[in-house]
Design a protein that fits this description.
It contains 16 helices and 14 strands. The chain is an alpha/beta fold.
Amino acid sequence: MRILVVSQYFWPENFRVNDLVREWVQRGHQVTVLTGIPNYPAGKVFDAYQAQPSAFATYEGAEVLRVPMLPRGTGGLRLMLNYLSFVVGSGIFGPWRLRGKPADVIFVFEPSPVTVGLPAVWLGRIKKAPVVFWALDLWPETLSAIGVVRSSRVLGLVGHMVRYIYNRCGLVLGQSRGFLGSIANYCDDKAKIRYFPSWAEEVFQDDSVQPAPEVPESTERFTVVFAGNIGEAQDMPAVLDAAERLKDNTNVRWVIVGDGRKSDWLQAEVTRRGLDKQVLLPGRFPVERMPSFYAHADALMVSLKRHPVFSMTIPGKVQSYLMAGIPLLGMLDGEGAAVIRDAQAGLTCEAGDSSGLAQAVLALAAMPTAERKQMGLNGRNYAQQEFCRTQLIDRLEALLAEAVTISKTKA
């Protein structure tokens, strides 16, 4: 198939769409990616890209076309302008950059914002190709959950935009079963909604990787590792509350690997609370380096704020954590917590429950090594069964083919 991927984020930014594009090319598909200028998560354009943009024009055999876009910067207004600029840049320059490049199907990768669907829908009309939209985040619910938008009028307008996008897609895929009901609220044709979860990357199966040198080795201390985006949704205040509760326990340390809009706040707060010896912040690293940080972990932590929309979410890191074969600590509600419990892969507490998280850390640390090892094995087995990369990408191929068939039938 000739697949056009529309995504605001792409390599050298770290997102699962990179892995997907690589796999599609290896399977013989002709893949073109329409994306923006790499600036996530720090909010400024990557130095390597600025120095030599031409070095980022292809990726693993896929052509990468980039449109002008305002970097995220800092602050809510700048973020909204960043979202808008990709829509405008893709709408104006996308058709020109894609001239003479037919597409059988257009695939939209949407971790947020949903506005990425607007240029995809427009390009679908121009190319006469069906659009398959993978919703990894729910709008307008997430805007309300993280406090970006509080006006019911504005949220209503965003809802109308979401309805416009969903109703013009051939298929709409939800990353969790809990997403499907919300998607149905904005999609008139319920028959085109499908459940399609994220997969567990195979890189996390490597048990032979050496521990990251950026983190001091410490076999005497129980190490809790968090890896990923550091933003509002991850509820870092509650995580630090848990770390502060265990401040006097010298046998526990926390390693938070990643970057995001709350990074500066996190660094300042760790210092303010006097947690510099308990909480390590090595920074942001590419996904290929994550197994080396996991190698330090006695437990891998995932957290989300308390809100109905987040209770429907399975954070992408859950699949990666499970595949790593290390016990999980979850401070979250709903489907994400249910996966950890169903897999018998770790301990959970309710979202925002810093006391519960601290108790779970102590409980896991007190377990016999063999019991923790079994939890890790349970997680890996569950990931291989439920989130197998090969099987899920097989299913996605079939969904793309289904969208093409439906489009031809209607034509």
